[in-house]
Write a structure and sequence with these properties.
The protein has about 425 residues and is of the alpha+beta class. It has 15 helices and 13 strands. It folds into three domains: about 180 residues, Alpha-Beta Plaits, CATH 3.30.70; about 55 residues, 5' to 3' exonuclease, C-terminal subdomain (DNA polymerase, domain 1); about 160 residues, Dna Ligase, domain 1 (2-Layer Sandwich), CATH 3.30.1490.100.
């Protein structure tokens, strides 16, 4: 597959065979960095790191010039600067990124009504129903690439295939600023030599489990016995991988997507050892998550926390709720309980709370509502915050010395808004 720095890039020649295709995956190239160059052309050609300059933050994105030094997203900025000392650090401007994303998505919507945004900088498009308007899928992909470049001023890469899985793999291989078409009849030929890590949905742990058993390429998944594959990654994932490895992916391009989770994280400027402060912080984050749930009229059926220690090792815990809720007190109690189950008490760099298994609010309540009082209190807080602002209304326990949340001073850095919706 294509590497993050653009080496290993493979693209299709003009007029390539696109028979049997109809699904496009469009991915902006180094989106945050590209938008910053669009805003300040003097940055063009420079190695850019998008992140906070304080050194304790992580890289949100990097230009291809920086990636060639080994800089990667989610890498500590301090490590990125060691790899690329000449890099220019640019603080992220998420309002700017959202504005450019809106322009790009508007182009997609003008091409086909069947668009499924995956994130701020990528989307699936089903173009099978608009061929009479715009031509074959390959020609439509070229049209999109040209319009994004001419009308927005940034580049994108496009994968064209018969399925979502193959289209997404193809766009990755074509980056940056390329297009790769995989005709339906050549799907297996395309898949077989690719490493298992190239598969959409195979994370580092699953890849390590497969590779440790000699399953290194997609063709190995097809030839490995079902029982051996299940021992490596479990029966559920094994079944999905076998289907994808054979080129089968029934997933459609969904024009409306239900969010699977909502979360907030906090990265501290200095590592925190005080467990009571961390428990208070988890409650504060749970309140933020709950407020977002209520605004969107969702309830959570589960809660998860993430704790990253000073050595960057990360643990997570999750819990299924007996009844769905959007009450911050309930989410916070569960989050703090999960935190208490973690035996390790090393200094902490980051904590996060995530609401999972979302469903529309307003489901049937039982005979008793254990959260009724808290529901009224938090409803009143919502109304007060909408009138006076979120900074003016908070829990009394979050008021006090230091950082204003009743604990010893623990400076913190602003959360990356990209993490707010996971």
């Amino acid at each position: 597959m294509g590497r993050g720095d653009g080496s290993g890039r493979i693209v299709s020649p003009p007029g390539a065979d696109d028979s049997g295709t109809g699904i496009l995956h469009v991915d902006m190239d180094a989106f945050y960095a590209a938008v910053e160059v669009l805003h300040d052309p003097s940055l063009r050609g420079l190695p850019l790191i998008i992140g906070s300059p304080d050194g304790r933050s992580v890289v949100s994105s990097a230009s291809y010039e920086a990636r060639r030094f080994g800089v990667r997203s989610a890498m500590p900025v301090s490590q990125a600067l060691r790899l690329c000392p000449t890099a220019r650090i640019v603080p992220p401007d998420f309002s700017r990124y959202h504005a450019v994303s809106t322009q790009v998505m508007a182009i997609f919507d003008q091409i086909t009504p069947v668009v499924e945004p995956l994130s701020i900088d990528e989307a699936f498009l089903d173009v099978r129903g608009v061929r009479r308007l715009w031509g074959s899928p390959g020609r439509i992909a070229e049209l999109i690439r040209r319009r994004v470049a001419d009308e927005v001023g940034i580049t994108c890469s496009v994968g064209v295939a018969a399925t979502k899985h193959v289209a997404k793999m193809a766009s990755t291989i074509a980056k940056p600023d390329g297009m790769l078409i995989v005709p339906a009849a050549r799907t297996q030929e395309f898949l077989d030599p690719r490493p298992v890590r190239a598969m959409w949905g195979v994370g580092p742990k699953a890849a390590e489990a497969l590779e440790s058993r000699g399953i290194r390429f997609i063709r190995d998944i097809r030839t490995t016995s079902p029982s051996a594959l299940e021992r490596a990654v479990g029966p559920a994932l094994a079944g999905r991988l076998r289907e994808l490895a054979a080129g089968h992916d029934p997933r459609r391009v969904e024009t409306s997507r239900v969010e699977k989770s909502v979360g907030h994280e906090e990265t501290f400027d200095t590592d925190v050892s005080d467990p009571e402060f961390l428990r208070s912080e988890l409650l504060r984050l749970a309140d933020r998550v709950a407020a977002r749930l209520r605004r969107a009229e969702w309830e959570a059926g589960g809660v998860a926390i993430k704790v990253r220690f000073a050595d960057f090792s990360t643990v997570s815990r999750s819990h299924t709720l007996p009844e769905p809720t959007s009450v911050g007190q309930r989410l916070g109690e569960v989050a703090r309980g999960l935190f208490d189950e973690i035996a390790r008490r090393d200094p902490v760099r980051l904590v996060g709370v995530r609401a999972e298994r979302l469903r529309p609010a307003g489901g049937a309540l039982g005979l008793w509502d254990d959260d009724e009082d808290w529901r009224r209190v938090e409803g009143a807080l919502d109304r007060a915050r909408s009138r006076f602002g979120t900074a003016m209304v908070t829990r009394a326990r979050h008021l006090g010395a230091g950082d204003g949340r009743g604990a010893a001073p623990h400076p913190r850095s602003p959360s990356d808004p990209r993490r707010d919706l996971e």
